[in-house]
Amino acid sequence: MLADLIPPQDKPWKLWPKIGQHLFFTSPFNVTGQPAISLPLHWTPEGLPLGVQLVAAMGREDLLIRVARQLEQARPWIERWPRVHA
Fold first, then answer.
1. What's the pLDDT tens digit per position in 49-75?
2. Confidence band for 1, pLDDT divided at 50, 70 and 90
3. How far is the C-alpha of 32 from the C-alpha of 22, rounded, in Å?
4. What is the DSSP letter of 8?
5. Collapsed DSSP state (helix, strand, coil) of residue 54
6. Rounded Cα–Cα distance for residues 57 and 50 (Å)
């Protein structure tokens, strides 16, 4: 629930255990300023997407967008939805 991600006013550090697990794979690139993208390139037998994260050198968002475009042309996902989604 989104309300669970609001830090307590008097102890904002208490939020870290809740969000840390979600930021584990993105924090190195947030710190270095490298662009990254996650793409749903595989699907489980249950129909859930599995993402692949690609990272480029700082300032090379253009490279990630070109690669993402080529991958989406090769394995389109625009019409794919997991059985349970928001």
1. 888 899 999 999 999 999 999 999 998
2. low
3. 18
4. P
5. strand
6. 24
